[in-house]
From TrEMBL:
GO biological process, one term: dimethylallyl diphosphate biosynthetic process
Compartments where found: Cytoplasm
One Pfam family cited in the UniProt record for this chain: NUDIX
Residues forming the catalytic site: C67, E116
UniProt keywords, alphabetically: Cytoplasm, Isomerase, Isoprene biosynthesis, Magnesium, Manganese, Metal-binding
Enzyme class: isomerase
Chain's gene name: idi
UniProt similarity note: Belongs to the IPP isomerase type 1 family.
Cofactors: Mg(2+); Mn(2+)
Reactions catalysed according to its record: isopentenyl diphosphate = dimethylallyl diphosphate
Name of the protein in its database record: Isopentenyl-diphosphate Delta-isomerase
Amino acid sequence: MINDSVVLADADGRPCGTADREAVHGVDTPLHFAFSCHLVDADNRILMTRRALSKRSWPGVWTNSFCGHPRPGEAVVDAVHRYAQRELGIDVDEVRCVLPDFRYRAVDASGIVENEICPVFVARPLGSLEPNPDEVAEYAWADVPDVWDLVSRTPWAVSPWFADQVRQMPGPDPHGLAADPAVVVTHPTTVRVSNS
């Protein structure tokens, strides 16, 4: 059976245990490791997704391309590739970390808390999307400057973590896709935790 646990973190951002991924999010969600990824195509369009209505937290909310959690001992970049397949049915390339130290806490209307150390990645999509309906209700490709303008004018229209990420990234090309492709940061490289 696959270990679908998340790695918990202490206040200093150090791994300190694990929890079941399905059970970890509630009204008192402990700090844990995650990631966000923004897919940007060759035309400088970003993939926006609307969370499935069946999602426990922020159902139906528009957000970044996809998010997820590295498993214990899994490299975060490997988790990015795994979730690209799981949520969108595609492979990704040119994976880069653009906000290695992003961290946030947010509470949705039902009281469910997100509390994550969440490095932010950008990647190129490979192939055609086949979104998992349990994860994605809708999706849209939009010009990056238009999305950044939307967030600056109406931050309440998107997930709070996406709005915070946009505020922390420079614009109008926040993804640095013209940067040297050899510079790939994968922080934290692997989330390791003792099973004791």
